[in-house]
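Budget justification note: compute hours in this period were largely spent on complex prediction jobs such as the one shown. Inputs:
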Amino acid sequence: MNRTVLIIGLLIVAAVVAILFMGLGKDPAHIESPLIGRPAPGFALKAVGSDETIDLTRYRGKPVILNFWATWCKPCWDEHPVLTANAQMAGGRVQYLGVVFQDEESKIRSFLEQRGWAYPTLVDQAGKTAIAYGVGGVPETYFLDKNGIIVAKFAGPMSAEDIQTNLQKAMK
Amino acid sequence: MIAFLLVLALQMKVPDAEQFVGKPQGTPVTGEQLHLRTQQIGALLRCPVCQGLSVSDSPAEMAVNMRGQVRELLSRGYTQEQILSYFERSYGQFVLLKPKFNGVAAAVWILPLLAIAIGAVIVVSKAKKLEAAPAKSNGQPATEPEDPYLARVRELVEKP
Amino acid sequence: MTPSLGRFLILASVLVSAAGAFIGFAAGQKQSPEGLKWARRFAYAFAALMLLSTLVMEYALITHDFSVQYVSQVGSRDVPVWVTIVSLWSSLEGSILFWGFILGIYIAGATWLNRGKHEEYMPYAIGTWLGCGAFFAFLIAGPANPFLTVPNPPLNGPGPNPLLQNHVLMIVHPPMLYLGYVGMTIPFGFAMAALLRKRLGHSFLRPLRASLLLPWVFLTIAIMLGGWWAYEVLGWGGYWAWDPVENASLLPWLTATAALHSAVVMERRGILKGWTVTLVLASFLLTILGTFMTRSGVFNSVHSFTQSSIGPTILVFLAVTLIASVLLLALRIDSLEAEGNIESAVSREGMFLVNNLIFVVLTFTVLVGTCFPLIVEAVKGKQMSVGRPYFDAMAVPMGAALLFLIGIGPALPWGKATKRELVRSLVPPIGAGVIVAVIGAALGVRSPWTLLTLFFGGYAVHVTLAQMWLPLVQRMKRGGSFGEALVDAQLRRGRRRFGSYIVHAGATIVLVAIAVSSTQRSSQEMTLARGQTAQAAGYAITFTGVEERAEPHRQSTIAHFNIARNGKPVTTMDPRMNQYASMREPIGTPAVHSTVVSDLYISIMNIAPDQQSAGIVVINTPMVSWIWIAVLLMGLGGLVALIPSRRRVYAVEPHSDAAPSLGTAQP
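Corresponding output:
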């Protein structure tokens, strides 16, 4: 029995199998955000349907739900009514904001007019805000607490429970 | 119309690199050099919506936006380190195609060097052992001989 | 009816292969000729069942039988016939069936070619092969069953992934890859047999080496086809991104190449037996790892099949074969004793050792780099990437070192050499190296690594040609024309050596072409209005207009460009954006104009809605066509080396090679 071969061999086996096994549970497309716990990048963007420029600091003092989306994104269509309903229920206690990038304002406008327009929607030219927030795809939603710190990020279309769960973190 | 949009654009404030990495620490880049440097730095950034392509190579709109951002930062005088750091702050280490040299990522650079060093030691000691070993049975290999003289001998033997 | 027929055939193949494996190992243990006879029958039966199952599936595909689940997933009445035939391997379940089919052919072939020979090893080999066959048949019967019945068959299907319909290379790349990958099972069986018999006799080297070389040829060409396909189809203008699945195809190639080289030393000096066997085992294990990486969904890759329960099953098989290999090696490696020595490390033998070192380190590096993000995420919970810049940084020096070895290895004499002999063999090619490097610099190469690669390349070409020339000269001294000498010395007598030098010549060109095409590449983005001309890479590019073309399965928007050089028209190029019915985003197809010197490559970024302007990327890549052709040359060299010689060999075989004879009768 060649001990060296045995030991080295079994070490390799253990390492390989362990690494691959641990990889099995994970989705390689899912990326964690490094911004959690950090102040949200500030911005001031033009709102759809008016000349107004909305600055993020305006909403300091209450939790903000920042939703990045686009009209060509099918899951965003499913998510939109959920967001609209929750925004209406929240009243003034929570501020909902939409940010659209890689899209045209006229398309955004008709989308909102058809499907509901419960909160300000902003246009992000050249996707700079999206880049600053580390947006990888749409829809992605960031939850900010009243001090402007990002407490959670959710990638993908949200259900009402998803909103509530993450909102709890923002309310603390 | 364009003037109107321009005025509007000036009123907007997008999240600025200054928030993340401070003031530019290099000199602004222009012209052909700007194009080249944008490509080089873009090759080090991973397109977040693609399967492993770099920002320079990817046709996705997200990547085009990121290239634009790199170009702008370069023209304002940000260094490569600052630009990479800017993207790392929002996307995480995931966006860096070239692993960093510090922290846990350093291992991926060290391991191959270690492998060469250890491998070289093993090869040298094995070679020494083989040099010292006695030439036991010297069975003539069953292959076409490399040595032309031996080939000639074979031919002479084979001739009818 | 068809689904149940398919399921029946697959189930039968599971039983036959499992039984055959058992019989093979039992026959090996008892060294029973009757057992071997039966093992061979089961091997042929397995191959026949796999063949029939595949034919049934192709029949179902071609007749658009949507009651078969796989056909309902990838079949479509709207796609061309060749796409239908080829969709056998376009999606996960069909591709595993295809794997089993190729495995069946290989097993039958290897069994038949070795009938009446190597009887002490064959039962074990067949047992191992059928064991692997049983696993894949089990996969097909269970987690990856393409023959499930669809209760309410639809009238039409979605067709295979559009990316796979874009190019003709889809017909050749996967089969080549499978022929390479699956083929590694055969030498694996031989290696296991040697370990189980506790000996690796001299006469057994030949089937071991040949069974390794044939899949190596296929795998070499397959990897090149993969790169060529990425280049022609994906639109980013490159051919290798160190994507996890690309790496998965490269890993077994690296160890197989190392094994082929150490086998030469094993044959000449009787040493490195255990090491060669280890490399052969590793090559097979890496193919299983590779198939796991491609199909488990663990790795983020452009190739990934969808996730399914197949991942854990493959991992279990990988673990089992890994442990079996390690245990067997630990127990038996010392029995494969070295019969010889080397005279000096500064010799051709020594260079083979260095060759193996570099190949193994390169394999390790690519493996670690690919798996590193997984490790970090598991240990620290953070996500990081290990991408092209890392692999290029590692591969470039190692590639240069390999090119250096291709030069000095064959230049050095066998055995021991005096200082004078060393100088006489190593110095003359330096001139050729310098000339090539100077030419490169004159043509505009400035990158230090590329210049170094050019120097090593020139050196290697000189050495390789000299080594090919030497036997010719010897033969011509006996009388006869050059042509006669060529046929006699190289093709009739020296095929292995001649073939390997052809491979080396090809490899040299490949490495040089990769270096040049990477560092001398230039790319430009531009937007052209209709009728407008722009200059790029010495060409005048004129955008002439957009054409819409509707095909049954896709809608194409084609942008037409006239290409001229020095005022004279050269060609037209027509990159496209294809909108497939089943996909949301359009997929672009670039246009490529290849010449000996370089490729002009145009990829569409966007087309204005009024179709009066187009944004494109124009890439100029020198010497990239040389890569495809030189790899074909490598494959050709391997095939030349494979042709068996019928010449009687006057060899004094070592005593240890005398095998205990197995019975008397021949089946």
